[in-house]
Amino acid sequence: MFRRLLSVVLVAVVAACAGSEEPADNQTGSGEAVGGQSGSVGEGSTDKPKAEETADPAELMLVTGPGGSVKVISPDGTEVRELRVPSGGGGPSLQPTWAPSSLQGRHLVAWTELAEDGTFQIALADVSDGSTTRFEAPVAPFYYYWSPDAMLLGFLGQSAFSPLQMGVVDLQLERVELLGEGQPFYFDWRADSNALIAHVGDALSLLTRDDGAWTSEVLSVTPGLFQAPAWISSDRILVTTPASAGGVEVSVGMFAAQSDLSGQRLIVSDLGGRPLSTLAELEGAAAFEPDPDGLRVAFTDFAGPLLVLNVAGGKSVPVSDGRVAAFQWSPDGSRLLFMEVDKEAQALVPRVWDGSYTVTFRSFYPTRVFLLQYLPFWDQYTRSLTLWAPSGESFTYPAATAGGDRIMVQHLSQTGPVEVSRGVFASWSPVPVAIPIAPQS
Fold it and tell me: How far apart are CA 306 and CA 108, in angstroms?
């Protein structure tokens, strides 16, 4: 809910952006289902030259540019591969998203396209050579979330006058399948890629996959006021529940959940819906993210503070007293990046906490795309993409500047960011990617 209000406050500032802020590089300490049709494999660009050798794996960035372009660049801004030119007859691309790992030597990126006949397509581009496979989508997809093994591509979409629908592209079976519908709809993949936990409307559902077939069951737990659930192990999930019975429905735009005047609890639950432990008592709508090992969880009720605690128990550690629009653990879980709203509610201040100290970096105005499409639902997006470099030594963000929208890279060892590209949004490759080197002409 707070994120909706944040978007309203900041959007006018972005439209009238007047350059960057003064740097603030101080360091402070901290306390304690209908089936779709498969597309034609290999459709798209197939006339690229064969590679003769492969570069060492590199940390690459995926950039959404103006006009729906999609490209891959190196952290210094060098263009590695243009995957999609600015939109012409094909319409703008939506939500380009990295696959989390290589699939049979291919590293894929997914996005949405609008075909000339008015149908929506799910495009899968191979970063190594730029070739593209397309699947016809039964709905208009607006969000992508790959399974950990990169064999399944989950997506959310909507058709006119219908609720949100969740589907999966099965790359092995080459088919598109719708798995459920409802509003709102948030989900998280289990590490083995054979199960999903979904927060749909006012219920929690477990979707499991066995021999290519999906089944669904509603868990006997009443969700509280939050958006995206999270796995912390193969048989335990992280959710919130009302602190007492008699919750009432609260709806703000697409956000709807159960709330209660007496607050809610952040809990660990088993797959039978039984609460195993209560981690924290909360007053308002919450967001939370476990670290990669599922040992610690960062959480906030949007009004602040941002806290971190051990799932096994112990006292929570305050990381930020202010309002936080987004936060994300580094790939190894040693650091926490968070975007704090400045005192005037006019900009975001990136800060990184390492368990003992917090480093504050230069504030920025977010691009409209970051502000309106990503930040209101960041607890879902942080499950499917990363602002962190795989090394954990840099992060990226899209900034609205006097010269236009720019992609910035902030190295932890430097006081200020480096501008690397034009663009409205960017994310880092989850792992280093090997790109074939084209032969010299």
Answer: 34
